[in-house]
Design brief:
7 strands; 174 residues; alpha/beta; 44% helix
Amino acid sequence: MNVCVFLSAADLDERYTGPAREFAELLGKGGHTLVWGGSDTGLMKVVADEVQATGGRLVGISVELFRGKARKNADEMVITADLAERKALLLSRSEAVVVLAGGLGTLDEVTEVLELKKHGLHRKPIVLLNTEGFYDGLILQLRRMDDDGFLPLPLDELVHFAPDPAGVMAYLGA
């Protein structure tokens, strides 16, 4: 399975790198392909290293702005002109989306794929790995949107929240 992973390119502590590495190991050992932002820094590097070390394939979709940070030994690396093209390719090249801890770029990516799914423009599973309660605030907001009638389909049809990497893989059936 080609799995798009949205996550941070920042260097983070073990609270976030440990579960990310565990998820990446499950992905690689399962023979899956990581489709990610292509960066060879921070949490993106941690995940790519582990996927590659455990037998998975790497497809990076980077952007001209970050060309200098792109991983050199990915199985495939695509450089896009801008962030919009990058997001579109990340989604089109994957069969599922997993969201790990990240900043504003990750938040932008996840809200876009949720919006596209809400409108029926894709049916791919979206899973948030809620490491250390990182996404508790977002989950609370999404539940309120659902409860107050802002979502045209039930929240559990839009996104799944997993407490750990095994839960992510179980939901994906991988």
